[in-house]
Automatic annotation (TrEMBL):
Molecular function, one GO term: S-(hydroxymethyl)glutathione dehydrogenase (NADP+) activity
NCBIfam families according to UniProt: adh_III_F_hyde
GO biological process, one term: formaldehyde catabolic process
Protein name in UniProt: S-(hydroxymethyl)glutathione dehydrogenase
Key words of the record: Metal-binding, NAD, Oxidoreductase, Zinc
PROSITE patterns: ADH_ZINC (PS00059)
A Pfam family annotated for this UniProt entry: ADH_zinc_N
Entry GO CC: cytosol
Keyword Oxidoreductase: yes
Coiled coil spans: none
Length: 376
């Protein structure tokens, strides 16, 4: 069949909206009509050429929602007509990682997924001339139709709006999950969130959901103060306006009652800046502070701190997809949204047709959007 897609033919070039060929699903695969897809910084990281694992040409996009159109042989967990969210972190429930229950990083299809291919080592996409086009993060939601492995789709309720729940395919789950699954924040905790973009705002609402008490947001853009307050932030810091290093500033700010050591119980980096990652760790509490790295740093970047910071009990944690097990947890997060426990609508600041997808990237670059969504 043919489908319209926004193709990244070369690194650093705008996406080209064009018609491509899409082969139907093989054994263990499903064909999905994508109804809506978010434009995420990770897509831009690859499009720009900064991603060392980026492969071209490719159809980017990994934050989508749609409807199953066709299933291949052997598919049993979804059927035609089911509403689904594609999963860039699959859940096979049978590999050593899934069975360990210690990680959400399923390894069943990791090798081929990283090569931009389906599990059988081939691509379902090609140009009209027959040249292969790579898949992206196993999803390729910048195409109106896409094919995914059965283990990489989460079946969700049918009354949830596609243009909102697509955001659960990455940003919402990553931010909220980092709080609930990775940090395991307790009621009454103090927390700091560095970077109040699409991920950071979801960390904020995850902290509110978890019952954190003092929730500090840090951003260079004062416009994010109002945004942060909408999602549970209690205090805001612009590091350029405090007149001192931010680490001792936060340590002093978080001294409460008999605790005169100070430091946040939990900190979260949503910037991808390795200097900020260090600051986030060092302003966490001596003895028990946990700092979660969410932001993706540039290729070759390294984080560093004095060993003393770790010897005295602080912990650095990493998280991918918020530690969520896709097929199990994503439907629950959709329920949270539909039940009003978390917000999504305010963060969808711009919607557009596929033809305007490059404008969506421009809005993201200029800091004018929290999340732009393409509606097919």
């Amino acid at each position: 069949m043919k489908t319209r897609a926004a193709v990244a033919f070369e690194a650093g070039k705008p996406l080209e909206v064009t018609e491509v060929n899409l082969e139907g699903p093989k054994a263990g695969e499903v064909l999905i009509e994508v109804k809506a897809t978010g434009i995420c910084h990770t897509d831009e990281f690859t499009r720009s050429g900064a991603d060392p694992e980026g492969i071209f040409p490719a159809i980017l996009g990994h934050e989508g929602a749609g409807v199953v159109v066709e299933v291949g042989p052997g598919v049993t967990t979804v059927k035609k007509g089911d509403h689904v969210i594609p999963l860039y972190t699959p859940e096979c429930r049978g590999c050593p990682s899934c069975l360990s229950r210690k990680t959400n990083l399923c390894t069943a299809i990791r090798a081929t997924q990283g090569q931009g291919l389906m599990p059988d080592g081939t691509s379902r996409f090609s140009t009209l001339d027959g040249d292969p086009i790579h898949h992206y993060m196993g999803c390729s939601t910048f195409s109106n139709y896409t094919v995914l492995p059965e283990i990489a789709v989460a079946k969700v309720r049918e009354d949830a709006p596609f243009d909102k729940i697509c955001y659960i395919g990455c940003g919402v789950t990553t931010g909220v999950g980092a709080v609930i699954n990775t940090a395991k924040v307790e009621v009454g905790s103090t927390a700091v969130v560095f970077g109040l973009g699409g991920i950071g705002l979801n960390v904020l609402q995850g902290l509110r959901l978890a019952g954190a008490d003092m929730i500090i947001g840090v951003d260079l853009n004062n416009d994010r103060k109002e945004w942060g307050e909408k999602f549970g932030m209690t205090h805001f810091i612009n590091p350029t306006e405090i007149g001192e290093d931010i680490v001792p500033y936060i340590v002093n700010m978080t001294k409460r009652g008999a605790d005169q050591i100070g430091g946040a119980d939990y900190t979260f980096d949503c910037t991808g800046n390795v200097k900020v990652m260090r600051q986030a760790l060092e302003c966490s509490h001596r003895g028990w502070g946990k700092s979660v790295v969410i932001g993706v740093a540039p290729a070759g970047a390294e984080i560093s701190t004095r060993p003393f910071q770790l010897v005295t009990g602080r912990q650095w944690l990493g998280t991918a997809f918020g530690g969520a097990r896709g097929r199990t947890d994503v439907p629950k997060i959709v329920d949270w949204y539909m039940d009003g426990k978390i917000q999504i609508d305010p963060m969808i600041t711009h919607t557009m047709p596929l033809e305007d997808i490059n404008k969506g990237f421009d809005l993201m670059h200029h800091g004018e959007s929290i999340r732009g969504v393409v509606i097919y």
